[in-house]
Structure formats: C-alpha cells, structure tokens
Design a protein that fits this description.
Elements (H helix, E strand, L loop, with lengths): L2 H17 L2 H5 L1 H20 L11 E5 L8 H14 L4 E5 L11 E3 L5 H4 L1 H10 L3 E3 L3 H11 L5 E5 L11 E7 L26 E6 L10 E5 L2 E18 L5 E2 L1 H7 L5 E5 L4 H10 L4 E6 L18 E5 H7 L7 E11 L35
Parallel strand pairs: 1-5, 1-6, 2-4, 2-5, 6-7, 7-9, 11-12, 11-13, 13-14
Antiparallel strand pairs: 3-4, 8-9, 9-10, 9-14
Helix pairs in contact: 4-6, 6-10
C-alpha cells in the first residue's frame, strides 16, 4: 500500500475512533463482542477458574486501554529511576514486541540488542541499568528475572495491563490527549477495555501535548464510590540531544543555537509521531520535513534518504535500531517527563513484602552474554 494512501486511511480511522461515524457505527457489534470477551476473561480470573501467578515481590503494571502508543515507556523509565533513588532494586519485564523470543524468557542488562529484545526493552535497559526480561507470558519473564537476579525486590511491567495471568499490586494507566476517544472497543473504537476500567486502577497519567492540555486535573479523585484514583499530568520535554554517530551531546539551548542556520527534519516510528513533532516545534525548532513511520519500525533499510536536511531528529526508541544505518545526520532526542504532582509515586499505596528466603522456581532465562549482576 502506498504510504500516502496508508496515511490517509490511518487519519480516517483515527477520526472515526475519536468522533464516531458510519464506519464506527457499522462495527459496533464487533466492539460489543470484544467487550463481552473482556468481561468473560476478567470474570474467569476473579472467580479462580483461571489462575494468575503471584510474584514474591510487589508488581507495578504500567499500561493503557487506548490502542497504540500513549507514552508508557517514558513513564516506565521515570518510575524505575525513582524506585532506584528510593533504595529499591527493581527489575523490568516486558513482552518484547517485535522480537522472536522463543519458548524461554530472554533477560539481561544493557546493552541489549533491540532485534533480540524489542526496541522498548532495549531503551529501558539502557536508560536505567536494571535487569530486563522479555516474554509474551509475563509470569515466565518475571520468574526468569527473579531466578537470575534474586536480590530484585520489585517488578515493573512495561505494558501488560490486560495480561491478567500476572497478579499486580499497583496498576497505572497512561493516556494522552485523546482520552478514551469515542468510548468504543476495537474495532469500532480505539479501546482495549471499556472506559470504566479507568475506575479500577491506582493512577492515571495523562501525557499532555502541552501543559494544561488533555483531560483531567491532578490529585486524588473519587469515581462514583470506587477507590480513589490518583490523576497525574505529564509533559515530555527534550533533556538533551545526542549525535548518534559520535555520541556528542548538546543541551536544548545549545542545539537550537547551533541549528539556526541548518535545515532540520524529524522522523519517528512510535505510536503517536504527531505529538513528538509538536514537542519539537514547541522548542522553537523549524522542521522542514517530518516522517511518520509505523510503530516499532524495523529499519531494515534507511528510510531517511528522502529527507533533505542537515540534521534529522529521531526518538531514543528509534535510535536503538538506527546505529547501523551510518547516517551522520541523525540526532537523538532524549526526552524526559515532567510530572505534576512531582511526588506522585510516593503517594501510591506501595508497600514492601517480607523478604523471600530463596528465589522462586522457574526456568532460567536464555543466555544473552551479559553478566548476571547489577552495576
């Protein structure tokens, strides 16, 4: 399918998912079927007909109900860094999207090959330095990580809100300015679960395109008699820029100063490229061209040949797969989230469990060449 046609189709579907329309209405029976499946699955775990695995350490799950990217990975990285600062010894588990994991979980510490682990786990490992384990079955990923790093005292699950086979202590939903769209489930709408799921989690983090935009105020909010939900606002801001080929870094101010006489382009293979481009423009960067690529783009070849620019700005997620392209124009935008309230993690009801006497059973993770130790 030509890229222009694909982009037009994507925009049309997103319009239907946000405001509704004839196509969304036509697909409502399928959305109702998806809602029935979700209810049946949750009821099976709630009744004990399907068993969920309980880890011997606290588990925090970060996910979303809106399909596609809403900003979960920056939240995961910030959460892990905050846990480290508080004295925890976290490990991260993930599906490993885009990688052929195999029967056994694959785990290690940075640097991790994105083709073997997935781009997001590779980025998380590099940004945090903590052990990362990947497998579509999250309990297997958790068991492998705990067996190899028995001093781990908390697990953070990047995505997996709907993976009920893993019990969790804290659930965090990350949404963006799109909210719940038209409120319908796939394929009639953009949701994996009904909007009422927002009432069941401990915190909702809204990734705002700009300060003050998007749904919800901050603070604790009651939900019609349900447990209080902590509402957190988040804005992503460039922390520094890195020249991919040389590793040279610049502050946002220095990068903007150096780039005044240069032509700039930006590219992103993430869930919401438009939000990324908007963030750069808000920094005063004049983007001559932008290139929106599919989420988790593989970069089997160089997609930047059609961009006529002195510098091309890519995301840190894309950078995990772009080094082999040997394109000297690439600069990595390392963005960091700013939260309001800033102390949101300390407000969550997270308590350590009693220390376990021995690591849990389970298969060891597949060898990756990295030593099984912490830095």
């Amino acid at each position: 399918m030509p890229s222009s046609l694909r982009a037009s189709l994507t925009r049309y579907i997103e319009q239907q998912w946000q405001r509704g329309g004839w196509l969304s209405t036509l697909l409502r029976p399928l959305g109702a079927l998806a809602a029935w499946h979700v209810r049946r699955k949750r009821a099976a775990y709630a009744s004990g007909k399907r068993q969920a695995w309980r880890a011997p350490v606290p588990v925090i799950v970060i996910g979303n109900i809106y399909v596609g990217g809403t900003g979960k990975t920056p939240v995961t990285i910030a959460l892990v860094q905050d846990l480290l600062a508080q004295g925890w010894r976290p490990g991260v588990i993930s599906r490993g999207y885009g990688a052929d994991i195999g029967a056994e979980a694959r785990c290690g510490t940075a640097p991790l090959d994105a083709s073997q682990y997935g781009d997001e786990p590779s980025l998380i490992a590099a940004a945090t330095g903590v052990p990362v384990s990947v497998h579509p079955q999250r309990p297997l990923a958790a068991q492998a990580l705990l067996a190899r790093w028995p001093d781990t005292d908390i697990l953070v699950c990047d995505d997996g809100l709907q993976h009920l086979a893993l019990q969790r202590d804290i659930e965090i939903i990350v949404q963006d300015e799109r909210g719940v769209g038209n409120g319908r489930l796939l394929p009639a709408g953009p949701l994996r679960e009904p909007p009422a799921r927002l009432s069941d989690v401990h915190a909702i983090i809204t990734n705002q395109a700009a300060p003050g935009s998007g749904p919800a105020a901050q603070g604790w909010q009651d939900r019609q008699g349900a447990m209080p939900v902590l509402r957190v606002a988040m804005v992503l801001q460039p922390a520094h820029y890195e020249h991919l080929a040389s590793g040279r870094t610049l502050t946002p101010a220095d990068f903007a100063q150096e780039s005044q006489a240069l032509t700039l382009a930006a590219a992103a293979g993430i869930g919401n490229p438009a939000r990324y481009f908007s963030m750069l423009r808000q920094q005063g960067l004049a983007l001559r061209q932008t290139l929106a690529l599919p989420d988790h783009h593989a970069y089997a070849d160089n997609p930047f040949t059609g961009l006529h620019a002195d510098r091309i700005l890519i995301t840190a997620k894309d950078a995990t797969k772009c080094r082999s392209l040997n394109d000297g124009r690439l600069w990595v935008v390392h963005a960091s989230p700013v939260f309001q309230p800033s102390d949101w993690l300390s407000q969550l009801p997270l308590r350590a469990r009693p220390s376990r006497l021995a690591p849990p059973g389970g298969k060891a993770c597949a060898a990756d060449g990295n030593e099984a130790k912490r830095g």
